[in-house]
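P.,

For your records, the input lines for the assembly:
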Amino acid sequence: MVVSDKTSPSDPQANATRESSPIDAPVLAAESLSVIRSGQRVLKDVTFRISPGEVHALLGGNGAGKSTTLLTFLGFLTPAGGSVQVQGRDVGENLSAIRRTIAYLPEAASLYGHLNAYENLGYFLSLAGTNADRSALDDVLDRVALQSGARGMRMQTYSKGMRQKVAIALAILRDTPILLLDEPTSGLDPVAIDDFNRLVRDLADAGRTILLVTHDVYGACHVADRIDLLQNGELVGTFDRPPGIDRIDTEAVHEAFAGRAAA
Amino acid sequence: MMNSVFSIAREEWRLWLRSRLALSALLVFALLLTATSTLIALRMSAEHQQRTEQQALAEETFLSQPDRHPHRMVHYGHYVFRVPPPLSVVDPGVDAVTGQSIFLEGHRQNTAMFADAGASANIGSFEALNAALVYQLFVPLLLIAIGHGLIVREREENTLAPLLAQNVTGVMLCLGKWIALAGVTLVLLLPLFVMTAVAVARGESLLASAGLIGIYALYSLVWCSLILLVSALVRSRGLGLGILALFWLGAVLIVPRSAVETASSVMPAEGKLEADLRMQADLREVGDGHYAGAPEFMQLQANLLAQYDVERVEDLPVNFRGVVAEVNEADLTEVMNRYAEERMALEARQARFAESFGWLSPVVAVSAGSRALSGTDLATHHRFLREAEAVRFDFVQGLNRVHVEQLDYIIDINRSNDTASERRTRMSAENWNVLDEFNFQAAPATERLTRATPALTMLSAWFLLLTAGGIFVSRRIRP
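Structure tokens returned:
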């Protein structure tokens, strides 16, 4: 495990595996990123890079700037300073092409209540310019463990967790190289969270690059290759999963998170 | 891109078809439109038939009068009726408030009356709610009811972010939603297609009918753009609904009422009683043609005697009483026409001023355009008055010419001596065919389109402005 923050830089040896190189260029990169929303600077000089197949978690409390970071990668917000890049291209250069490479799961994602799971997935996939047949939909809905009996029911009858599973299924079905997940396990029960974490790891192992934002320390430590700790819009610490270890040290992250929050 | 736009439009339709509110609103509108259009169509059809029959009967009655003194026929008079144009099934316009028949007689210009007592009684009844009013007032309400949440609902229900994340831009989203709502207007316009098709089958111009459909389509699209713009701007459905409801109230009630009040106060019209008194004073100066010996006609007498080089009116080769009646009718008509034209010019100015409030309310614009295209506007009523007056003047002067040329002056002045004298003044009934057939028709379609141009311009401006606003706002839509 490697712990670093602004006052104690990361272990160069451990970080060497994560730094971008000409061969292994970062899929997602924020360089000195600053964002202003409603007149307030919500991100301040944030820099990180995410390599292909990496699961990268942004951890922080409410208002830390996590969701803002994701929205900036999607081009919904414009940096006040610095830059964000997706696959080496500045976001804003060709937003449409960049968005085609990204599947985004928003916080409290809510699909249409008057549609069932199949109809929702079919509609959103058609908007994304793709489609999937019923068996492909069932395969993914099986992976997110949505009960088969519920799939034909209107989503207005779903629990929050069931809706979240369908939203996750949509992100998977987009079949994009990049996944941006905003509080993906919100509303899921513990078993579903474990299932989801396994799913994320499987997707990363299959080559997907995943940036997830969460305030779930345990979940982040279990699923992420690297955790960046955000506080008040600033990157205040970085935790890497050491080679050969299946998770980041939860206690260390929790301590840093709680310590920063108390401070 | 367009695939996604149409997907968004289709999805909005699926939502509405699964929504009890949208279906209920559509059902209520369909019932209201069916009831009003059926009632008004039946009434206007009956009025059309009744007035056509009344016109034929009036002409037949006039022509079948026995031999009489020609001036008795001048006072016997004649009725003309304004037959409602075929498109009045959609918009009866001023028909219900201006009167549709005029009694024509010598020396007077009577005001238009209602063809029958029932017609005036209909003004305040349910039948006053016609198809045009349903389209002008209730289509916007229906569109607001089902469309106010177009964009803001996505925001409130957290579906905006997933939508935009599928590489859907704000412009695509708004265009899809706009197409969906425009599709609703297309459905709502179907009854209008049927009504105008019936009007075309009854001889209405295709161009005018297409123009009428076009102006209501444009009007509906103005509301679609407004609803979309508001829905994209606000952060809650309640606020959007409130803004749109207030706009509707202003557009439907406040602005049209203010337009009429302002026009009346900026261009005040003289009361009918005062105007009539003033005109009567001018008419008195012209003199009464029934008294050929009155001082007003001495100069005329002298001129005639000089012209024919005779000493006495009895020696004139024409009936002097007839000449006086003819000249006096022309002079009276000139005075009456002057007052009528002044009044109509003022009414036209007031109407144009009130219609300019279409820049403030699309309802004012569409109602003016609808009346013009249907051939039921004030200009049409004025043309009816002018054509009726032309018929009146022609037949009165035709009878006066019979009086001048065919009735001997001596026989004429002695007509009251006894029955035999009176009989000798009777002219052949064949002379009554001086009466022209009156067949009032709506103006040609091109003229109606020209009159509707200001309304079309105003609605086009509304549409372009709101659509430009929608495009501007749509480019800034963020989750």
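Two observations worth noting. The interface with chain B takes residues 71, 74, 76-77, 96, 99-100, 102-104, 106, 108-115, 123-129, 167, 170, 174 of chain A (CB under 8 Å). Chain A has two domains: 2-101+178-262, 110-175.

Regards
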